[in-house]
Amino acid sequence: MEQNIWFTLLSCVFFMALVAFISYKKTKGNTDSSTGYFLAGRGLTGGFIAGSLLLTNLSAEQLVGLNGQAFRTNLSNMAWEVTAGIAIVLMGLFLLPKYINFSITTLPEFLSKRFDEGVRRYTVVLFMLGYVLVTIPSMLYSGALAVLKLFDVPALFGITYTQSVWLVIWIIGIIGALYAIFGGLKAVAVSDTLNGIGLLIIGAVVPIFGFFALGDGQFFEGMKTLTTNNAEKLNAIGGPDDSVPFGSIFTGLIFANMFYWATNQYVIQRTLGANSLKEGQKGVLFSGFYKLLVPFYMMIPGVIAFHLYGNDLRSVDLAYPTLVTNVLPTYLSGFFLAVLLGAVLSSYNSLLNSAATMFALDIYQAGFDKDASDEKLIKVSKIFGSVVAIVTFFISPLLMNAPNGLWDLIRKFTGFFNIPIIAVVLIAVLSRKIPSLAPKVAIIFHIFAYYMMVWGFEQLFGLPINIHFIHIYGILFAIELLLMLAIGVVKQRTTPFEFPSNPSVDTTPWKYSVATSIVLFASITIVYIVFSPIGVAYTDGVVSEYFSLAVLGVVILTAILVPLSIRQWNRKYNTSYQSMNSKRAVNSEQGNVY
């Protein structure tokens, strides 16, 4: 046993050291300027962006949390991940071109240009509180939980379980902080991409071994057991009592995903580091296809664990770690641990990097030293990142007593900051006459209203609001949009805002962006058909007779729309860009600056 542990640890260290070495070689000498440190020198390609987005988003929080929810209920929680494609398309086709035209580094900077410095400060405070109190601690704790289940840390070091949680959190946190604080965004992106490849490999391996275990050594027998026994566990069409009712996808959930993929600083910072709009769009849209793998990689293992262990586990969040411990061969344990830690470190160092970026640019430079040098900004960023890291080391262990699993707890608390930010950003780009007063009122209103509707009325007056918290997302989003529009009517800007165009990179859009978006929408629909009562959740067999017809209908419609979208792009853009290039060539020959 001790020999196995040392083999796992040494092989894990080898894989992590390899990633660190490659990241160092790829980023050496690229962090001397603020653009190099905060935006990877605006040199990221689509592959690095997609890989970084994958690892930034998919962490131990998902591995542990989503599998725990699948173990506890069904696959309805996959809506958080699979339907993200809708928000990803909004980001790639609509918001990313505006961000790149603004040549911004942070989202609060975008809002300061559209509104004023007050709105910038409001959004920075929301981001900071959300990152420090909720998101970063949850990343560290979920990673620690997975490590503790894989290794008997209390017995290994002769300490208590609580002490073990603290120890592992500090070790993971310190390693992640070194990447984020000293390597900058490019080091984060490169390491994310390498770890992302590992996650794709190990994500496929775990359910494969799980099927063998479920089928007593027979892979297909395990798959048959999964789809015929308790088939309702594979249903993603959530009912009213599920964690994610299906109807909530079209109310609050879609806006929560819009926040995450279109306005969340630690996600969009990768796209702002793209070397062109085309590469940025590729990276964003490709990440949408990665999200479709989530139910297979991060929920099916939870259902397999349900079939293997029933209700014998102490906590739903132990489903995935227990399965891995029992089915993964020893020779893969070090690689799995390296990938798991890589996923944790990725999300953690991405959040830390973004928090430090916002502090340096949106608080320190904007409020205290407008002429700060690149060297000073990088130094301030590193100091603040170190402080945030230490603070989160103390907050993370407090999540040990989450009653209904880590996943639901995190989703509820992110409601304090995700909805007002996406509402403000959409108003910023859709209306040129709304004044800066409107978003300030909406943000303050949301914080109080969300608390009262989710917890306050029951805690203070004994009057529970029996509305699912995701529906509350949608209700407050609509109210806040109307509130800002009403303020715009009463106190309109004297002159409509004009969006400037000051790009730092080429803004030619990707020719296949619309076609890729159509294929992404079709793929989302097919995944939902697969995990529905006419798909593998069919209780009278493997799948219903309507399954093939439904999939075929989606494929035919997609085959019609994709060529039409490419033809439309050619008509709309090709002529104008050819004309622009001709003008540039003429001006270049004449020695003029175009």
TrEMBL record:
GO molecular function: D-glucose:sodium symporter activity
Subcellular location per the Swiss-Prot or TrEMBL entry: Membrane
Name the record gives this protein: Solute:Na+ symporter, SSS family
Chief location: membrane
Family affiliation: Belongs to the sodium:solute symporter (SSF) (TC 2.A.21) family.
UniProt entry keywords in alphabetical sequence: Membrane, Transmembrane, Transmembrane helix
InterPro entries referenced in this protein's UniProt entry, alphabetically: Na/Glc_symporter_sf (IPR038377), Na/solute_symporter (IPR001734)
Membrane topology per record: Multi-pass membrane protein
Membrane-spanning residues: 6-24, 36-58, 78-101, 122-144, 164-182, 194-214, 244-263, 284-308, 328-348, 383-403, 409-430, 437-457, 469-490, 510-534, 546-566
Gene Ontology annotations for the cellular component aspect, listed alphabetically: plasma membrane
Pfam families: SSF
